[in-house]
Design goal:
With about 260 residues, the chain is α/β, with parallel strands linked by helices. The protein contains eleven helices and seven strands.
Length: about 260
């Protein structure tokens, strides 16, 4: 039987219930290239001065709040089905967001999305790779988008070298991802969709050893390898541009897809 999702509601409630994760910032997304690219795409391809923006899988609200600071964004919205993630999103946005916002606790695949108002921009970062049916997942993004609206999909890339490292340091996390979603060839269906205009579809970010911060194994050998990787190998890799800047699927750490709904 095909596994339709690598995670479930209980997984994400436990994930967001982690005491460290409640207060931690994800520098890979929030302070780096991914956020900058997300902001650039919204500014470039959404010309309205009163944009409505929706993040799918948006807990705990930090990224959407950062997007709300863009001059042309009027309202932000979050969808998530984790009760704990929703609770944290409400708390965070209440304390930090000055824009209008709405938060929806619902399952993207089981809820009637027609009850929600379509928005100008829909994006998700680190969402689609947890689901087997990539086509259906993208269709759900489109169901929430206005005609002429912008859709942006971001996902980590665990292929090649990143897959090998993850198998050593964080095999449990690796198993929550469908690696097939990270293969560019599996996104070719977008070209066949008549109501889609592709803006970009590429790997970005080069090789970034910082993405391998998780350590799930407690063996002395793995802990030693972890220290060697971060204290010795990581600084060396960061000094070599040909590795650091490579956007090969075997080295880079992220993938971005953006398109218009016609």
């Amino acid at each position: 039987m095909i596994q339709l999702s690598k995670t479930n509601k209980e997984y994400w409630d436990n994930y967001w219930g982690d005491s460290i994760r409640k207060v931690s910032v994800n520098p890979i997304i929030e302070e780096g290239l991914i956020l900058k690219e997300l902001e650039r795409l919204i500014k470039t391809y959404s010309k309205s001065k009163n944009l409505s923006v929706l993040e799918i899988g948006g807990a705990p609200g930090r990224i959407c709040e950062l997007i709300s600071r863009l001059n042309n964004v009027k309202t932000i919205n979050i969808i998530d089905y984790s009760s704990e993630g929703i609770r944290q999103s409400k708390s965070f946005l209440k304390d930090n967001c000055s824009s209008n916002y709405s938060i929806y606790e619902l399952d993207l695949f089981k809820s009637n999305l027609k009850l929600l108002p379509p928005v100008d921009v829909v994006y998700s970062l680190g969402f689609v790779e947890h689901f087997y049916n990539l086509n259906l997942t993208i269709e759900k993004h489109m169901d929430l988008t206005k005609k002429g609206g912008l859709i942006i999909i971001g996902l980590p890339v665990y292929l090649g070298f990143n897959k090998w490292i993850s198998k050593i340091f964080s095999p449990v996390n690796l198993k929550t991802h469908f690696l097939s979603t990270m293969e560019m060839s599996n996104w070719e269906f977008l070209k066949r969709m008549k109501n889609v205009k592709i803006i970009r579809k590429n790997y970005i970010g080069g090789f970034n050893p910082d993405v391998h911060w998780r350590l799930e194994k407690n063996s002395i050998m793995v802990k030693l390898m972890y220290k060697i990787f971060h204290n010795l190998i990581k600084p060396f890799i960061k000094s070599i541009n040909i590795i650091k800047d490579s956007n090969s699927k075997y080295l880079c750490y992220y993938m971005l897809v953006a398109f218009k709904k016609l």
